[in-house]
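Table 4 source record.
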Amino acid sequence: MARPEIAVVGSANLDLVVEVARIPVAGETVLGGDLRRIPGGKGANQAVAASRLGRRVAMIGRVGNDEAGAMLRAAIDSAGVDTTCLLTTQETPSGTALIAVGADGDNAIVVSPGANSRVTSADVEGAADDLAAAEVVLLGLEVPVEAAAAAARCARGTVVLNPAPAPAAVLPPELLDRVDVIVPNQTELATMARHAGLSPIGEVDPETAVALARGLPVAAAVVTLGAAGAMVVTPAEATHVPAPAVVPVDTTAAGDAFCGALADALVDGADLVEAAEWAVRVGTAATLRHGAQPSLPTRAEVEHRLHT
């Protein structure tokens, strides 16, 4: 396979999905529908999303030597992603995500990282040629921060960090100093802002997002706002990118579809606002199908699902 246009360093998880009438609160039990086993994981979803949009993509990470690992590798392979650097961990099970999807399409997710937590700097450095060749390198935090930092050191193109899940501590300068674009959602932005000494109160709306994003030690931010779209924030300007109005059925992989599409547009030479406009459309289209990777659209499917 030719060198990748996009390299993804991140997680691969088996999603165990149950649809419920509503997300339970603490201490509550609710009955749901039948259990579904779906390939997922933020890194794998982003890699598959970019591949379905027509990009050459390499996936760097780990799965377990188990049935789930074989299923995950097969799903990523079948999407056309290069899995040469998706390694197998013998003694640890594959990552698993427990997902409850409410009737309104929102979800609650608990992740057991499994093999994802065993991704090392040495694993990433073994993929240095792909990382150096890629025009965009997508990083996530479902693998150790040290591995993400090693990938950023190897990258020669644009480095995009999706800080998910929200980091429990301040991210190290050796990572943030090499990030060109950070793509948090509202919760992740609020968490990182608190680490920076700020104190967001209540919902992070577009105006608040601008102030908080400008307090982060990164060159540019694209804050995803769910149904409200996204906010592109640079030191010079802030641009709100609205999302098409739809009735979502499952928001599980919308943020991952967004990141894959953002990388896709950046490879094409789009500026950050143009890239966010495309990413919002792809992310919205992903909410109109159930499941993580099964929901990720091709270019043609984006237009078909949104009827425009």
